[in-house]
Write a structure and sequence with these properties.
The protein is mainly beta. It contains three helices and 25 strands. The longest helix has 16 residues. The structure holds calcium ion (2 copies). One calcium ion binds next to strand 25.
């Protein structure tokens, strides 16, 4: 607690002395994890200088730079092509994962083919002590870091003043999970405090919270410099408090999603494409809080003609990667010893009993699928499956696919590991013409991930195409 308790007691005595017994005790109470957010210690908001952007006019050139730069290595950076907005005022920031294959986005990091590219906005204005808030839907898959942060880096002094909200959590208290949020504040890259909080645990009634549930959540922090304290919150509940390594330099405000591939600190991006959505960003400075004047140096941003100019509609993201099979290349393997190939999200494999080469029991063929497009064909003891991470209790999906021939689709829901099977559902397929199969799926209690698996049997063949798993 450093000397905070000490300062607090002196201040308390002083206020008692000044105000007698009229001071409301909850103003003086030190904030605690799980408390409702309230202003601390009588600090006042500078409402006159409130910043609020609900993105109803798209992405403002007056307020925001659009990031066009990379950091962290082994990724494609953040690029303007991944920034969009809807006509009802939602900022759409896209992330392209490990299985991205559309070839229409170029990376600006050391990976250039569009994989591991995210999106970020950076404030043109400077911020300091105050309340910072964002209402958003996080990018709901592992491997992409959804973040909201203040940042000021002075290469001359080594100062790195930064306050971060990052998702998913689980960086410290493994596993990586959207049940947790990570809150970190820095004054240099080394001097920092990170707190990894299970959000359910801050609710007294023990309600489950999965921050990638597709609902809007409000994330933020109150940054005080006198006394030095940061109060982080989610949906009005305090998730973490820090009174060490509290920044005081003027900073810029950042928001976005990016791919920390080399550190894998938010897991692996085993998906094709997904989005983060932002309803609004709000910043209200605090009055009478000290700060150090600073001009955060900045480079690597979009040109004016790279800002989005036409709204898009909110896409319903297919959790299955390359479900249309259109970008899958022809499968060829060197010899019969190759038993699994990972192809843009598809794990193409064969049972132990199968002695044929993998490319004899699995093929990708043109002209045979939906509307004469490409499809995946499984023969004999071949099998094809995909894993989908971050699927939690009561998540509902519309699952559908086209199939022809004889075989099975099996949906498996897993707990903490893939040896912990919670529920399994089987679709039996036996039809000569391409037919659609649909079902609503609901994730059971304790669920963490799911698998969709297709197989057939010796002497038989199963064709599949247009697979889709849409979260409801
Ligand atoms: Ca909005
Ligand atoms: Ca197809």
């Amino acid at each position: 607690m450093k000397n905070f308790a000490h300062k607090f007691i002196s201040l308390f005595m002083l206020l008692l002395f000044i105000n007698g017994c009229t001071t409301s005790p909850d103003v003086l109470a030190q904030p605690k994890q799980g408390d409702n957010l309230s202003l601390f210690n009588g600090v006042k908001m500078d409402y006159e200088h409130t910043f609020f952007d609900d993105f109803s006019n798209g992405v403002s050139k007056e307020y925001w730079y659009i990031g066009n730069q990379a950091w962290g290595g082994n990724n494609g950076g953040v690029v303007p092509a991944n920034v969009n907005y809807t006509d009802d005022g939602v900022l759409v920031l896209s992330g392209n994962g490990k299985y991205y294959s559309d070839n229409d986005i170029r990376g600006v990091g050391d990976i250039k083919d569009g994989r591991y590219t995210g999106a970020a906005l950076i404030s043109k204005f400077k911020v300091r002590s105050g309340r910072f808030e964002i209402k958003m839907k996080v990018l709901p898959r592992q491997g992409a870091c959804t973040a909201f942060w203040t940042y000021a880096n002075d290469a001359n002094t080594g100062a790195n003043h930064e306050i971060d909200i990052e998702l998913p959590g689980g960086n410290i208290k493994r596993p990586v999970t959207f049940e947790n949020v990570l809150n970190t504040n820095y004054i240099t890259e080394r001097f920092k405090q990170s707190q990894d909080t299970s959000v359910s645990s801050v609710y007294n009634n023990g309600q489950e919270v999965f921050l990638n549930d597709g609902s809007w959540h409000v994330f933020g922090f109150d940054w005080y410099t006198n006394p030095e304290i940061i109060v982080y919150y989610v949906d009005g509940k305090i998730t973490a408090i820090s009174d060490v390594f509290v920044p005081n330099m003027e900073s810029r405000l950042w928001l976005g999603c990016w791919f920390p591939v080399s550190s894998a600190f938010v897991g692996t991006a085993n998906f094709e494409k997904d989005n983060m959505y932002v309803d609004y960003v709000k910043y209200i400075p605090f009055l009478d809080q000290p700060y150090q004047e600073f001009d955060p140096p900045f480079s690597g941003y979009a040109l004016d003609n790279e800002y989005p100019t036409t709204p898009i509609s909110v896409p319903n993201i297919n959790k299955i990667s390359n479900g249309t099979c259109e970008n899958l290349p022809t499968l060829t393997v060197e010899n019969e010893n190759v038993d699994t190939v990972e192809l843009y999200g598809w794990n193409l494999s064969k049972k132990l009993s199968e002695t044929k080469r993998l490319d004899e029991v699995i093929s990708i063929e043109d002209g045979v699928g939906f509307d004469n497009s490409k499809a995946l064909i499984i023969r004999d003891d071949g099998l094809a499956y995909q894993n989908i991470d971050s699927v939690y209790h009561n998540f509902k999906f519309d699952f559908s696919f086209y199939a022809k021939g004889k075989g099975r689709a099996i949906v498996v829901f897993y707990g903490k590991t893939t040896s912990d099977t919670l529920d399994m559902q089987t679709f039996n397929i036996d039809n000569e013409n391409l037919s659609i199969f649909t079902k609503e799926l609901v994730a059971p209690e304790n669920c963490q991930s799911m698998m969709i698996d297709f197989d057939t049997s010796v002497g038989n063949q199963l064709l599949i195409d247009n697979l889709s798993l849409l979260k409801k």
